[in-house]
Amino acid sequence: MSSTPSALVAIVAELRAALDAGADQIELIVADPDRGRGRFAGERVVVDGQPHVHRPWRVWVDLAERLELRLLTPRPRDDGRLLLTFERLAPRADRRDWAVDAEADPREKYGARSAYARIAKAEDPGFVLDLAEALERARLPPAPRVLDLGCNDGEVLELIAALLGADRAATLVGVDHSPSAIAAARARLPGQRLLELDLNQLCADPHAHALGRFDLVVALNTLHSPGVDERALLGLITRELLAPAGALVLGLPNCTYRDGEQLFGARTLNITRQAELSLLVKRVAYYRRYLHKRTKRVFVTGKYYVLVTAVCERRGA
User: Fold this and answer.
1) CATH topology of domain 96-316
2) Per-domain residue ranges for the chain?
3) What mean pLDDT do residues 174-182 have?
4) Which of 39, 57, 189, 240 has its CA 20 to 30 A from that of 64?
């Protein structure tokens, strides 16, 4: 346990040295961020007559996330400072461990028994606020038709209905290829239309025409999924599924999950200490260019989930 050095670079070095030495927990004594409200990180603050470097709470949260640590609840001290405890996260799980039934049935990679089912997007404040903003931009009619491609257990459709409000009688339609996920979605959203269907099959046969057109189409973590024909699906959405003044929300994950924590940026096999954003940027640029050419006004928002929202020009003006 130590008091924080004056420079952040020294704090980072201290934490990394402790981790390299095998420490599972690291404690730091820091100035209470509440004592420096309104000051920026690095400004000086006096706590009980003693000078300290002010660091907002965000600094410690971000530092823990970047070093793949868990920041435990801070403990106040009698001298006006706080005791922070950083805890090493459990090792990364093999991706196969996330998909319980994937070897027996590839459709269950993200099914109801996979570890992915533990993740609740509706508990990510950034996602909720960004999705709410996307819905505001869409300017949906009083009784919109909403389609979620890759709806999984229906959580996002349920969230959309909640964000629209009880006075907006939305018709919800979801498509997913996982039998267990669709079963969960049907239990969550009784009376709505939830279809067990492969998205490539949707592109190849008349099912798309039977679905009709929608005021809002949502596809989160879907277009780029392995085995999905991204360009064919995007073309199907814009040609067959969107109403003339409809809005589209595409979502791309920009996070990884580890030991109960959500960490910024997807990791690649050969880069472990920082996120690799090039593929994300490339896809976002492609979606934006594609949709803009089809007279859509496009917005890109988000942090852990990047949302590409396309609205009709006359509606988004």
Assistant:
1) Rossmann fold (3.40.50)
2) 2-87, 96-316
3) 96
4) 39
